[in-house]
Every structure is written in structure tokens, then in C-alpha cells.
């Protein structure tokens, strides 16, 4: 995707919350006029490039990294300050801090509206003040999520597996929705690693004993070798 964009666009490119391969990074390094902002361990290898800002300590989510970058590099009259609360709550959810009461409600509204309508809502009105209709959406989504998580967790399969010389409890679950919350519920049930399987992707959640980024990297390499 990045290469395709570069073929028809020579302006500034900002890549946030995603990393690229080192091959593509070398290509972008030659092109110039690019910025990459990420907080995932899989991006640490890109820290050597001066145009990459990698939050190695995971102190900011992708949204917060982008917000900070834009705020720093635009005129003070830009409308970014209006988005500060929204970005703060996104960071609170993404890094699973859950410090603010509004965080979960914002997440439930996102789940109900889905991505496109959610984005439009906050482009039109970035204030995180919910209308009475939105509050009904949030309550509906809470009930739906509770029922869904209970069903998925009850059907999950727990298996003891040997990883790097240690035995860990792995939870496997078919899960297409609420993956972060389902994953953390499985961890609360005693799993060291939750493997959430959807139709098109596999999502991993773990406690501090297993590094998901290493597993993801091995899976990506294996997939590329097959092709």
C-alpha cells in the first residue's frame, strides 16, 4: 500500500500505529518526506531511522502519537486541541489503562456505530458528550457484549503447551467481536495466552509471561515462506 501511494503522491506521508518491513523502510528512507509513529514491539527494528518515532516504553498509543506529532508540527490555530479528550480516552482504552469513566462508554459507542459512522460522528462533533440516543446505544451494546463474552468464554478450549521450555496455559476461542475484552476475560480465567480466531485473522492477548510480538513475527515469516 505504501509503495502504491508513493507512485502517485510525492507529498508528506505519515504512517501511524503501523510498522513496515525493513525493505520498505529502506525504500522510504531513500524517498524521504515520510514520518512513521508506532508503539508496538514489532516496530523497534525501525528506530534506527531518523524519521521513525518508536515509543519503546509504550507510553502513548498510535492515536496519541499522531496527535502529539500533529500538535507539534502545525500552527496553534489548528483544530487539533478540540480532539484532546477523544484522543486521551482512545489512549486510555488502547493501552488498557482504564483510568477514565468515559473510556468504556466511548468504546461501546464505537462498537455500536462501527468505524465509519463513529469517525463521522467525531469529525462533526469531537466533544465526548453523549446524547440521550447515544446513551441508549451504549446500554444496548453493553448488554450485547456481556452475553457474547459469556458464550465465547464458556466455549473456549484451554490447553497446556510447551513454549521456550516453559509450560503455559493457552486459551483458544472463536471470536469475531470484542476481542480485547474477550482476551482479557480469558486471561482472568487463568490463561497465559489467549488465541482469538476470527474468519480472516488471529488476535493474541497475553499476560506478562509471553511476548505476543515474537509469536506474531514467527507466524508472519511462516506465512510469507508459504507464499
Layout of SSEs?
Layout: H1 2-8, E1 13-16, H2 22-31, E2 34-38, E3 52-54, H3 62-73, H4 84-94, H5 102-124, H6 132-155, E4 157-163, E5 166-174, H7 179-188, E6 193-197, E7 202-206, H8 212-226
Parallel strand pairs: 1-2, 2-3, 5-6
Antiparallel strand pairs: 4-5, 6-7
Helix pairs in contact: 3-4, 4-5, 5-6
Number of helices: 8
* Secondary structural class: alpha/beta
Uncertain spans? none
CA-CA gap between termini: 18 Å
DSSP strand (E) fraction?
15-25%
Q: What would you report as the Rg, rounded to the nearest angstrom?
A: 20 Å
Describe this structure in words.
The chain has 227 residues and is α/β, with parallel strands linked by helices. It is 49% helix and 17% strand. The chain is globular. The protein starts with a helix and ends with a helix.
Quick rundown:
The chain is 49% helix and 17% strand. It is α/β, with parallel strands linked by helices.
Search tags:
7 strands, alpha/beta, three-stranded parallel β-sheet, 227 residues, single chain, four-stranded mixed β-sheet
Amino acid at each position: 500500500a505504501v509503495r502504491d501511494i508513493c507512485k502517485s503522491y510525492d507529498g508528506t506521508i505519515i504512517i501511524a500505529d503501523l510498522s513496515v518491513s525493513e525493505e520498505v523502510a529502506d525504500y522510504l528512507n531513500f524517498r524521504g518526506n515520510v514520518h512513521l509513529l508506532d508503539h508496538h514491539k514489532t516496530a523497534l527494528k525501525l528506530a534506527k531511522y531518523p524519521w521513525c518515532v518508536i515509543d519503546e516504553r509504550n507510553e502513548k498509543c498510535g492515536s496519541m502519537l499522531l496527535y502529539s506529532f500533529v500538535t507539534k508540527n502545525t500552527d496553534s490555530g489548528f483544530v487539533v486541541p478540540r480532539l484532546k479528550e477523544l484522543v486521551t480516552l482512545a489512549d486510555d482504552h488502547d493501552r488498557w489503562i482504564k483510568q477514565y469513566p468515559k473510556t468504556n462508554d466511548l468504546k461501546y459507542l464505537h462498537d455500536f456505530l462501527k468505524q465509519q459512522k463513529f469517525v463521522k460522528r467525531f469529525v462533526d462533533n469531537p466533544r465526548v458528550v453523549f446524547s440521550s440516543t447515544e446513551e441508549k446505544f451504549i446500554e444496548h451494546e453493553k448488554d450485547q457484549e456481556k452475553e457474547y463474552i459469556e458464550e465465547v468464554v464458556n466455549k473456549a478450549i484451554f490447553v497446556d503447551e510447551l513454549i521456550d521450555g516453559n509450560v503455559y496455559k493457552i486459551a483458544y476461542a472463536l471470536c469475531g467481536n470484542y476481542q480485547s475484552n474477550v482476551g482479557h476475560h480469558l486471561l482472568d480465567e487463568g490463561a497465559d495466552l489467549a488465541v482469538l480466531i476470527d474468519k480472516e485473522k488471529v488476535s493474541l492477548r497475553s499476560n506478562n509471561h509471553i511476548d505476543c510480538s515474537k509469536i506474531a513475527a514467527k507466524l508472519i515469516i511462516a506465512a510469507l515462506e508459504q507464499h
